[in-house]
Amino acid sequence: xxxxxxxxxxxxxxxxxxxxxxxxxxxxxxxxxxxxxxxxxxxxxxxxxxxxxxxxxxxxxxxxxxxxxxxxxxxxxxxxxxxxxxxxxxxxxxxxxxxxxxxxxxxxxxxxxxxxxxxxxxxxxxxxxxxxxxxxxxxxxxxxxxxxxxxxxxxxxxxxxxxxxxxxxxxxxxxxxxxxxxxxxxxxxxxxxxxxxxxxxxxxxxxxx
Length: 209
Hints:
Layout: E1 2-7, H1 11-21, E2 27-33, H2 36-45, E3 50-53, H3 62-72, E4 78-82, H4 86-95, E5 100-103, H5 108-119, E6 124-125, H6 127-138, H7 151-161, H8 166-173, H9 177-191, H10 196-205
Parallel strand pairs: 1-2, 1-3, 3-4, 4-5, 5-6
């Protein structure tokens, strides 16, 4: 029996996923979490075979949560399940240790297949993502500006683009305002920008927020 914990901030989504997953007699949802912090607490206390993780949750986003999971239990497979299309976050999350990445528009059968595959220690990518990865390998043009950012810089950039202030970002990431300001300066320098408005425009144009 493969034991799964679902992390999504919408109760209706968790209920629907549980119903889909448990149609397979070899799969059992044994835990649920509505935030990154709750998920990490349950992983420390419980025993799970697969984590099904949304990347957009309150308090701690999916990328930061994924990195914490890998510090707590490096071998625990994490399958990202999100509304964001593959070209926005998939490569960064796979590099951070995710075992697979699925868009929520996938068919139930694909979700079941992905869970089984990552539970065996293998990677799962959709056909669309496989094509994207192949295309990236073939590209000779310069990488997108945001791909030059560190994971933390990318995280701060997205929060700035979502309209949050330095103080709000500092509180959310449990860092000082000075540290966030330093990240902001690095982001502007790396991306050749001068204002938050430019960051926001870029993020919207590239579908990052």
